[in-house]
Amino acid sequence: MSFLELHDIRKAYTLNHEENVILKGINLNFDRGEFISILGESGGGKSTLMNIIGGLDHHYDGDVLLDGKSLRSMNERQMDRYRRETVGFIFQNFNLVSYLNVLDNVLLSLKMTRISHAEQVKQGEALLKRVGLEKQSRQFPNELSGGQKQRVAIARALASDPDIIIADEPTGALDSENTQDVMDILYSIAAEGKLVITVTHSQEVADYGTRIVHLDDGKIHDELVIGAPFDEVEKEPTRYRVLGFRQMFKMSMQHMRRMWLRYLLIIFGSSIGISSIVVMLGLGSGIQNYMNHQITSQVNPTAVQISKKTGKVSTKARDKAKTAKAYKAAVNKETTAAAKNAQITSANINKIAKIKHVKSTTLGYYAGTQTSYKKNKVTASLQTDNQTILAKTIKNGTRPGTNEVLIGRKLAKKLVGTKKYKQALNKRVTVKLAMVDKHNKSVTVKKRLKVSGITSSNDTNIVVTPKTAKAMVNAKKVTYRPNFAIVQIDKLSHVKSVEHQIKAIKGSNKKQQYNYTGIGDLIDSLNTYIRLATNVLTGVAGIALLVSAIMIIVVLYVSVSERTREIGVLRALGARKRDISHLFFAEALTIGVLAAIMGIIFGQLWQVLGNAAIYSLIKYPIVRISGTAMLGGMTVSVVISLLAALAPAHMAARLDPVESLSHE
Ligand SMILES: Nc1ncnc2c1ncn2[C@@H]1O[C@H](COP(=O)(O)OP(=O)(O)OP(=O)(O)O)[C@@H](O)[C@H]1O
């Protein structure tokens, strides 16, 4: 049994419905240490036969046996392994990877062995020394002569320490001096006990071999043994591995570095899409924050005020009254009845306190007053202090204590004077309330209260503590009846649901019991609208991403087309289909990540510039790019790039190695 056996190999191409038989039953045996020259005319099928032996072409009849094992019985993974471990290819037109330097081209094969990186570099340099190129290891293929390129290709073929070297017209593109150098190297390889199969149409080149096989018209014409095969040499077994994503990623980086301008442009293009998305999200949240900030600086959106819905008080008694005194008494009774109707009791408030998300409830009291300072009398509404009156609205002084009053700026101006309104602070104002006492008598509640503070309020209102209010009315035997309550809700997002539940409470008349005043639900709705608008704007900005995805697809397709031959070389060296697709996914990943980083940097730049431009106007940073938005932008960029790579990577992986190698 020979090391390599060809059994009745037949191959035909069908062109224009016509079958063109190239190989018509080839039977050959090869052994280690042989230097075979396959001699034949151009177009005789030599390359076709080499592709079959090298495991690149499996569309043929007959069989190739390696150590008795049929190549036909091997699956795709085993064929990849065969090319990776057993065969080393040398091509007529060198087929070096143009963006890798000489050493990296050799390392391409060494990367498929399990030796350490340092050892790989050492061996790569030793191989280059062997082919006389130690000084050119950092040069790129386009900086080498034809002979030098072919010597790099030989070093690369040797790097994985294969048993078979297939050299398809290795000197076809070389002058006689380089031909001799290359053939000498191949001869020395055979002398090391490897099987070297050279294809040539030159008798001179064929004469280097230990056996010449004449291929003519698709058949073996004759075989001529001109030298003894070399002895087999015992060698250390090499441990191999697949290329894997890391190696393909490195390779893609090397490719991108060589084509940096193209990739920079596409990364720049994609980054515009990402930055517009990030800025739109930032603008949306900035506007939302600005609006909330503006509103909440005036009011507390989670504190809502409720009062009872009161029905009409009967006026029959008033109508029946015959005397002025009786009429007055009837009116007073109506006033007391209305006050009773409007009263919010502890039982009422306890029920509301039990509603989910209600943090606290406070009873309050409001009434109309006449407030005066010296001769100035102003109608003002009184309310007891509560959490809807924000500390930040108190511009001068403090909240009221007992027998003190907090007044609005408008009222202060009316009482003391527009320009010197601040002087109202610490002055005593008189507060009068017309009321009805327990005995149904009209009384005037009157109290001098010290102004503790002035708010920014533009209403004529005054604020006292509940204790002060109660003491004031009780002093005149008037019952203190709280007529509003403040319901404090835990979160803005819960305001709406609490509002619904309060509105659902029915009174004894089966009708809605409470009026509800608060802007929390309005803010909540506004926030929803802003979010919606932001999403729409972000979606529009997302169109830019679609364009960038198309750009990436185009660039990757161009890349696949430009690198078709390289793909063929990689497959010949033993790269798997998956490795080829990884090459393009790695590029897409790099584009996605760099576009995201660039997009975020641009976004930040827009944020700084935009905020600087608008700050003088509204004193608030209107663009607020959050960490989540940046992370989102990053994810979208990477996902879109990877999706864009799907089709080109798939196409690249499915390319036929033989067709790829003959791609022009
Ligand atoms: N993919 C293909 N489709 C159709 N015909 C093909 C294909 N590939 C090769 N052929 C034909 O097969 C024949 C043998 O080609 P092959 O490349 O094996 O010849 P060769 O002996 O290596 O020639 P050369 O020395 O010029 O490289 C040629 O006539 C060629 O036209």
Write the layout of secondary structure elements.
Elements: E1 4-15, E2 18-30, E3 35-40, H1 46-53, E4 61-66, E5 69-70, H2 76-85, E6 87-90, H3 102-110, H4 117-130, H5 146-159, E7 164-168, H6 176-191, E8 195-200, H7 203-206, E9 211-216, E10 219-225, H8 244-258, H9 260-296, E11 303-308, H10 316-320, H11 324-342, H12 346-353, E12 358-364, E13 366-373, E14 376-384, E15 394-397, E16 404-408, H13 409-416, E17 428-436, E18 442-455, E19 461-464, H14 466-474, E20 484-489, H15 495-504, E21 514-517, H16 520-562, H17 564-573, H18 577-618, H19 627-653, H20 657-661
Parallel strand pairs: 3-8, 3-9, 6-7, 7-8, 14-19, 16-18
Antiparallel strand pairs: 1-2, 1-4, 4-5, 9-10, 11-20, 11-21, 12-20, 13-14, 13-17, 15-18, 16-19, 17-18
Adenosine-5'-triphosphate binds at residues 13, 15, 22, 40, 42-48, 169, 201.
Organism: Lactiplantibacillus xiangfangensis
Keywords: Amino-acid transport, ATP-binding, Cell inner membrane, Cell membrane, Membrane, Nucleotide-binding, Transmembrane, Transmembrane helix, Transport
GO cellular component, one term: membrane protein complex
